[in-house]
Design brief:
The protein has 458 residues and is α+β, with helices and mostly antiparallel strands. The chain contains 12 helices and 18 strands. A 7-stranded antiparallel β-sheet has the order 6-7-12-13-10-9-8, with helices on one face. Strand 12 and strand 13 form a beta hairpin. The protein binds adenosine-5'-diphosphate and ligand LMANGFYV. Pfam families: Mak_N_cap. Pathway: Glycan biosynthesis; glycogen biosynthesis. Monomer.
């Protein structure tokens, strides 16, 4: 790959960009530090993918650390990936992508905008991914044996509610750009890669990816085959509910897919046995998350002691010598993470990043597989609660069918470990309360209803 003039690092550009970024960043869906003012930025790396002072649009790749005063601890000093387009003036079609204007230096007055919204700039990223190589700190890699990626596929941004940003190329590939990035291998590359190498067909193959080795090892983007015409389990479940249809065949199939992926992950990556002090740590982590959640969302306070009892029950089992197998898991499994292609095509599992708010080290640790099962069971409850009147029986039947499918396909029946399952469902509902309070306050009653129910159980 040619390094041309584009490896010049325009370090002086950040002060000129900072006032616009400070206004724009908090409004982005993927910005994790909402609610606390942005105090400043420091540059981790800057790479000109297209010259900024040329006649056409320029493209600047930035890794930027965001300082926030009074930031909640998980989001202080977070590092974000930004793709900044630079033009003299913005064509009307790109008006919604506006970030602002450069304020100083030789490019003062130029318009800066969200580069992923510009098909011309998005195409350039695919061009880089087609050929392995380096560009400044960025390193582009390809999956051995994957067919060549065609040139000139038209690009479009994916309009989905998501934690990152995705670009679709000619309905053939989808590139996910990670927004809040953490040093170390991203499980959304690591796990699909391990599964693809093991021949598991339940996951779209990561055909190419890019990241940095220095100043820190970051995974920045993963390209996978796009599954055209696919629909996710959430959409299918809502359709079934709207038509007053059961969802048993689908729930069972989802259980089977989950078990298949778990078996493949356990075969491909290290597993451990949890017991004794490990169980204590597992329960203690759930308690800590509950405590942090009650600080963030005071509505949880009255329920906390009863919720805690389910975590204590797991700890008590550990103390009595019970052990559990732990392995790498999906970490944020819900109905929106399983896609079905048209005409009964097989289901595929996506988005192995885990819960974006959890520390990466925690997400990459082996955990009981039932954690994913709990995530999916919570999702049936979510779907049922969007239905008026609330259709509890629908969720209950899905739950049984899903667990049946999971056990049929070789997974341990999740119902055989009721304490662990309940602890994970509670832990997930606590996570959801914080997630909804932060990102979608209108949805808060959904996990709060589950919290009430869990707290009322014996
Ligand atoms: N391989 C794929 N084929 C088709 N659509 C996909 C594919 N991967 C992801 N999507 C779509 O993109 C959306 C966002 O992807 P996801 O990996 O969940 O991103 P995020 O982690 O940012 O939430 C999904 O809900 C799905 O609609
Ligand atoms: O978008 P991500 O995959 O990163 O996951 C986050 O957002 C999800 C919502 O988009 C959130 O899922 C919650 O809402 C779903 C319905 O929209 C529901 O099916 C899930 O069961 C529920 O947890 C997920 O928790 C969050 O990490």
């Amino acid at each position: 790959m040619s390094e041309a003039a584009s490896t010049r690092t325009p370090l002086g550009l950040l002060p000129s960009l900072a006032p616009s970024l400070r206004r724009w960043l908090p409004g982005q869906r993927w910005f994790a530090g909402k609610g606390c003012a942005v105090a400043g930025f420091s540059l981790v790396s800057a790479t000109e993918l297209l010259p900024l002072d040329g006649p056409g649009p320029g493209l600047l790749h930035l890794l930027v650390r965001v300082r926030q005063r009074e930031a909640p601890s998980p989001s202080s000093g977070d590092c974000y990936q930004l793709l900044i387009g630079v033009r003299e003036t913005l064509p009307p079609a790109l008006a919604p992508a506006l970030i602002g204007h450069l304020t100083e230096g030789p490019l003062a007055g130029r318009t800066v905008y969200e580069g992923t919204r510009d098909p011309r700039l998005a195409t350039l990223l695919l061009e880089r991914l087609r050929t392995p190589g380096s560009l400044g700190p960025l390193r582009f890699d390809r999956f051995d044996g994957a067919p060549a990626i065609p040139a000139d596929l038209p690009a479009r941004p994916l309009d989905a509610e998501q934690s990152n940003s995705s670009l679709v190329y000619g309905d053939a590939y989808i590139l996910k750009l990670f927004r809040r990035i953490h040093p170390g291998p991203n499980p959304d590359l690591e796990l699909p890669l391990a599964l693809a190498r093991a021949g598991c067909e339940r996951v779209p193959v990561p055909v190419a990816w890019y990241g940095t080795a220095t100043p820190e090892p970051f995974t920045l983007g993963v390209l996978q085959p796009f599954l055209p015409g696919s629909r996710d389990g959430w959409v299918l479940a809502l359709e079934a509910l709207a038509d007053d249809r059961p969802f048993l065949g689908e729930a069972r199939a989802l259980g089977r897919v989950t078990a298949e992926v778990h078996t493949a992950l356990a075969d491909a990556l290290p597993t451990v046995k949890l017991g004794g002090p490990h169980t204590e740590r597992l329960a203690a982590a759930m308690v800590r998350r509950l405590e942090a959640a009650t600080r963030a969302v005071p509505a949880l306070v009255p329920y906390a002691p009863r919720l805690r009892a389910s975590f204590d029950a797991v700890e008590a089992l550990g103390a009595r010598g019970r052990t559990w197998a732990a392995q790498r898991v999906h970490g944020d499994l819900h109905l929106g993470q399983i896609l079905r292609g048209p005409e009964d095509a097989p289901w595929s599992v996506i988005d192995f990043e885990g819960e974006p708010a959890r520390p990466l080290t925690e997400r990459c640790r082996p955990q009981p597989a039932v954690r994913d099962v709990a995530g999916m069971l919570r999702s049936f409850d979510y779907a049922a609660r969007t239905h008026r009147p609330w259709n509890a029986a629908w969720a209950e039947r899905c739950r049984e069918a899903y667990c049946d499918g999971y056990a049929e396909a070789g997974g341990d029946d999740p119902r055989s470990e009721p304490e662990l399952l309940r602890a994970y469902e509670t832990d997930k509902a606590v996570y959801e309360v914080v997630y909804e309070a932060r990102h979608r306050p209108d949805w808060l009653p959904v996990p709060m209803a589950a919290i009430e129910r869990f707290a009322a159980l014996d």
